[in-house]
Amino acid sequence: MPKGANISLSSLSEDTGSVIVGLSWSSAAGDGDADVSVLLLDGSGKVRSEADFYFYNHPAAEDGSVQLLGKVPTEDGSEDRISLDLTAIPAEVERILVAASQYGGASFGDLNDLRLSLSDRSGEALLGFSITDATVETAFIFGELYRRHDEWKFRAVGQGYETGLSGLATDFGIDIAEEEESAVPAEEGAVPAVDGGIPAQPTSSPHDTSGSGSGPSEGLSAPSSSSPAGPSAPSGTAAAAESSDGQTAAGGRRGTRTAKKKVTLPRTAKKSLAENDSWKPARLFPVPSYKSDREREVRATSVLLSVMAEVPEFGRRLTAGFGAPAGRMQTFTEVSLPHGDTPKRPDGVIRVERAGKLWTALVETKTNGNPLKSEQVQNYMDIAARRGYEAVITLSNDVALEGTPLVEVKTDGRRKHKVSLWHLSWAEVAHQAQMLIRHEGVGNAAHVWLLQELLHYLQHENSGCHGFQNMGASWVPVRNGIDDETLGQGDPRALEVVESWERLIRQVCLRLGGELGQKALPVQRAQRGTDPKSRRAALADRLCEEGKLIAELRIDGTQSVLSITADLRTGKIRTSVDVTAPTGGYPLSVAKRLVRALDAAPADLHVETLVEGRTGPRGTLERLRPEPADLLPKDGAAMAGFRLSLFKGMGNTRGAAESGFIRSVDDAVDRFYGSVVAHIGPFEQRRPSRAKSAAGSAETG
């Protein structure tokens, strides 16, 4: 759509009662991000109250009419998705604004491919709108949905604000406090680490918009803007006051959300009454030895669906992205449905009722490494279409990739009723449970316990729900081909390994994000317009030529990109991160400050000084601790930063056994993040930010 154009949703689809809005962008450097906001406006063009303002700390309406679903990785960056149930929008609301804002001194001109897309509940794209003229704006209204004569229309707006979210919010009736208030304390009961694993980061992520949330009365913390006069909290709410280095008093970029009605796991486990360690606690969902994969599938489906029905926050989180409304949920297993001569039994059925209308999804489950079967899924798609159901959800240990369907199905274009096909991995289910019980909280203590029991079940070795655990049949032949130099470019086996590697990295992001309570997303560096198949083919050719699998990921709250390189020739995994050197300091002082920040890092950490155009000094931390001056270039060249790296031997097998490749990647990432990345924040924070520099210029001018 061109800027300023409008169109009726009813002219695009017969089913637009619920829609999914996606905002996406990309960056060639892999950095750059924005926060999504939604404002509901009445006939006066203003919000009715602060409850009509939805953002990362107020992500959902109680009636489910608005739900910020959070970020998902795309081929060129990430996409923020918003679920809008237009049938549940209050009658007095006439317009719905969809906006995004930048922070930390950044502007939308730093990002590429700014785009809004709108899809119906089945996931079929209805329209798209690209913003091509962004420059210095720090906030943008991408588009709006508005009522005209009892129908909804969409308008491509593309209006920017140099004053950030503050200027945008003020225009539509959000009161901005003149002074920022003191920081909101972190929620009691948040867990600092999981089973002695990765140290926890601040419990509120500025980009974590998934899941249900409470209204402003429960501690709404207003988003910040990169503008010197950026917004603080709306009046009557609590905001986090930023310190001089741009960090909040709570330790994150912005204030954490208070949630008086939310419950998480306690900081420390209660002392056990067992006589000795051999006594095992009773579990709600025991995991005995199963006789068949079918038994695993039946039990896993029943356990998951029962918890989804009993814990509203969890059920809504898993189904909102599939177009399900917020309503009363019931779940069923082993339902017999007529299909030809013999009835079919999907593993599960999910039904959600709202305002007398039913939303129904059939569920097909696989555990262990069992693949989904096209014939089974096709049968359920046909049944759903005939019975007027809305979706089929597949659930397995596999991880879906864009442009690479897990199963091939055919849809009958003559049918007016469309059925959407969605996929969930067991790793994503575990991630969502962990985010709720360890970081964000749920409605009551019983729900926390249910989710904890579910998580224990999913992580048990006998459940078969461990996530992606096999690099595939091509893994060993490709490694052998690299060893004996017989693997040539264009070999389809190399492409299969690249796809498995991408699935593994996406699962690493889910697991790491669940433990930290932060968003972790893969960084895809590809030329604009590159399709997924072409990008993966190029990576496969690189694997054949160099023998390396390379990936990058970014974690909210960190300044740098974490790189992972698996060198199949040397049999080593390298995890690394580049840290920018502060400007304006003496080189030796900068080197000493870095070494102090790495006090808890392992002695075998490799540190390399980054000098433009050539290789700089390098050495292990063990050698550099007594002599930080060894990091200084001998010719006095300027230090651009430092590269911190750890090396680990990789497993030989394709699976996740103790000697497996997947396990070695998980261990390498955990060790590097926990011992290195989690401790370099203070060093990075000493670097002057663009927002701070801009504020200083405004004061001196």
Question: What features would you describe in this structure?
Answer:
This protein has 701 residues and is of the alpha+beta class. The protein has helices at residues 164-171, 293-310, 312-319, 374-387, 426-440, 445-459, 475-483, 492-516, 532-546, 587-597, 621-624, 661-675, 681-685, 690-700; strands at residues 6-8, 18-26, 35-41, 53-54, 66-73, 77-85, 95-101, 112-120, 125-131, 139-148, 151-161, 328-333, 348-354, 357-365, 391-396, 420-425, 520-522, 548-555, 561-567, 572-580, 606-611, 614-620, 641-649. The strands form 4 sheets. Strands 17-18-19-20-23-21-22 form a 7-stranded antiparallel beta sheet. Strands 1-11-10-7-3-4 form a 6-stranded antiparallel beta sheet. Strands 5-6-2-8-9 form a 5-stranded antiparallel beta sheet, with no helix packed on it. Helix 8 (492-516) crosses helix 9. The longest helix is centred in the C-terminal third of the chain and has 25 residues, at 492-516. The model is unreliable at 178-260 and 686-701 (pLDDT under 50).
Report a brief summary of the structure.
The protein has helices at 164-171, 293-310, 312-319, 374-387, 426-440, 445-459, 475-483, 492-516, 532-546, 587-597, 621-624, 661-675, 681-685, 690-700, and strands at 6-8, 18-26, 35-41, 53-54, 66-73, 77-85, 95-101, 112-120, 125-131, 139-148, 151-161, 328-333, 348-354, 357-365, 391-396, 420-425, 520-522, 548-555, 561-567, 572-580, 606-611, 614-620, 641-649. By secondary structure, the protein is α+β, with helices and mostly antiparallel strands.
